[in-house]
Amino acid sequence: MVANPKSVASPLNGIWLFLIVVATVVAAFNGTMAELTAAVFESAESAVNLAIGLIGALALWLGVIRVVEVAGLMQWIARAIRPVMVRLFPEVPAEHPAMSAMVLNMAANALGLGNAATPMGLKAMTELNRLNANPGTATHAMCLFLAINTSSVTLLPISAITVRASAGATSPGAIILPTLVATVCSTTVAIAAAKLLARGNRYSDDPLTATPPIPAASGPGDALLENDPADLADAPPEIPLEPPGRVGQLLFGGLVVAFVGAVTYRLTVQGTPALAGTEAMAAISNWLIPMLICGLLLVGYFRGVKVYEAATEGAKEGFQIAVRIIPFLVAIFVAIAMVRASGALELMTAAIGPITGLIGLPAEALPMALIRPLSGGGAFGVMSEIVNNDPDSFLAYLVSTMQGSTETTFYVMAVYFGSIGIMNTRYTLPAALVADFTGMVAALAVCYLTF
What we know:
Elements (H helix, E strand, L loop, with lengths): L10 H20 L2 H39 L1 H8 L1 H7 L8 H14 L3 H17 L9 H10 L8 H9 L9 H24 L29 H6 L11 H24 L7 H27 L3 H18 L1 H17 L1 H13 L9 H6 L4 H14 L4 H12 L3 H11 L8 H23 L1
């Protein structure tokens, strides 16, 4: 008999309540109730401000993704990575838009393009939810995607490198190799953990028990599903393809040639100043986003997409998603802020310190390890303080690698699942936390080997 997933509570229920109650108890003992009260309201306001701030980025990138969908590029991408993705996500049709959206998210995370990764990830979750036979309950594909997302292989940990460079580290880019090794380890463990946990979670979205998933549309650029009236009601209207005339081809083709000429001029004729490794990577990162936006829009244009109409139609979804995630952000932000303001984090550090010392983790790095899954801003602040104090120390090297090797798991789960109304997250949290732990341990090991 198939279990009813709606009767299973999300693990976040107990964790969230535990954080709030423990923070209140600790604040009572420490006499920090005033700080706790202030943190509650400040964090709630910060959550709403963050959601509002996300509207612009979400609207921009979902608009670009809509152009990509209409142009048919999603199907091309899905075909290119079909062998790997079909093995990882057997529940998702091979050429479904969710496949290519997940790949775009993973690629953006690997390149350190956080502003692009989140909208692409939210788009992937939206598409995965169209295949969900049990609305409100995470599917196996969602759990695995979130586990991979929180442990994503990272090629360019730009934020950590930038902090090291500004602090005057001798070799700011030295953390690239240890970060890559640590994230490869954590991603491998995330996939293995999610697959193992999936075997013990046979709900009605399993291939053997589920109703057949709604097939992906087959027309070029049609990212919508054909069989479900509810999906069609929410779907953006189809935009016909009209290839540009000769004038448009010559105009925009000429601009592409002019851009290539400008790059060639700067590299050869004018010359470029010698850049340190970290400066070169920062420059590449700065070039990637404009080139990515222009490249995708131009491909759409030459394919016959009405790029302005498609982009504005896709951008509407960004506002809707930003509004939907506000309650989830407020809940997570308030719990985390209460833990920090009450002094509970310091007590946890003191209690765990002797144990982590046995594996060689410096006590000063323990707050970083504890707060990273909870608060990206808090972890970034801890890392920045340590790096600024002694940028060339082993401790600075370690926390910088940890920053680039792990993700803010609770924030990611709140945003991604909240955007599609998933309350029962099933085994996503344990799989993600195992990956986080692996990333921390791998970062520690590789830092000892390479420092």
